């Protein structure tokens, strides 16, 4: 039995979802209105969060807790706006250089940690596990790792047993890419089911 909700936010969410779905037919004014509302709402939310962060993590600690070191990021943040004043526009280079330097350092550390160190540690597993299943799983992991690495081995000719082994590595990569693509599709389907639940359940009361 259908019981339509009287909650205004359920109506708002359902109307916005249906308006966005009209793009499945063709681009139209309803979709463009919903798109602009989404972009505007996201931008407004980002600005509100930014102002709130300045107040919570900048102004409050500086005024109430006397954390004078906060003057450094505040001054760097203000200097970013000097870009709009031609005579002192060069001052904006200092905070930009600081942001680029810190961002580069964090990116290098994160990349090395996640893509090299953690991956290497994850591959270093004991072959003799507590059970037969754990041992077989470790063997599959190590053999698969070596097979994939052999596919990218260009310093020696790919022939004979090495060619067959590297071909197995290619198949393993294809399986991995297929699983990743399947996870992406299942994630999108999960989002779709969530939106259908919002429409058919929260709004129309059919679930």
Verbal overview:
The chain has helices at residues 8-21, 29-64, 71-80, 93-123, 132-151, 161-203. The longest helix is centred in the last third of the chain and has 43 residues, at 161-203. The relative contact order is 0.08. 74% of the residues lie in helices and 0% in strands. Helix 1 (8-21) packs across helix 6 and helix 3 crosses helix 4 (93-123). It folds into two domains: 1-66; 128-207, no CATH class. It has six helices and no strands. It is an all-alpha fold.
Task: Please outline what is shown here.
The protein is mainly alpha-helical and 207 residues long.
Q: How would the blueprint of this fold be written?
A:
Layout: H1 8-21, H2 29-64, H3 71-80, H4 93-123, H5 132-151, H6 161-203
Helix pairs in contact: 1-2, 1-6, 3-4, 5-6
Radius of gyration: 27 Å
- Can you count the helices? 6
Structural class: mainly alpha
Low-confidence stretches: none
* Distance N to C terminus: 9 Å
Name the helix and strand elements from N-terminus to C-terminus, one letter apiece. Answer: HHHHHH
Mean pLDDT across the residues is 89
Helix content: over 70%
Strand content: under 5%
Shape: extended
How many β-strands, per DSSP? Answer: 0
């Amino acid at each position: 039995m259908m019981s339509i909700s009287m909650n205004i936010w359920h109506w708002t969410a359902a109307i916005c979802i249906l308006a966005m779905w009209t793009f499945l037919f063709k681009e139209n004014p309803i979709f463009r209105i919903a798109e602009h509302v989404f972009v505007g709402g996201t931008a407004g939310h980002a600005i509100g969060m930014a102002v709130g962060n300045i107040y919570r993590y900048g102004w409050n600690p500086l005024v109430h807790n006397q954390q004078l070191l906060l003057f450094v990021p505040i001054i760097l943040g203000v200097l970013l706006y000097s870009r709009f004043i031609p005579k002192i526009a060069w001052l904006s280079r200092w905070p930009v250089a600081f942001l680029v330097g810190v961002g580069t350092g964090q990116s290098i550390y994160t990349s090395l940690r996640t893509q090299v160190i953690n991956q290497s540690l994850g591959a270093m597993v004991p072959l003799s596990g507590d059970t037969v299943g754990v041992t077989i799983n470790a063997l599959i992991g190590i053999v698969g790792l070596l097979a994939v690495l052999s596919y990218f081995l260009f310093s020696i000719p790919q022939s004979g047993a090495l060619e067959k082994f590297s071909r197995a590595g290619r198949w393993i990569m294809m399986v991995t890419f297929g699983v990743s693509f399947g996870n992406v599709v299942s994630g999108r389907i999960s989002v779709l089911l969530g939106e259908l639940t919002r429409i058919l359940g929260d709004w129309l009361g059919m679930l």
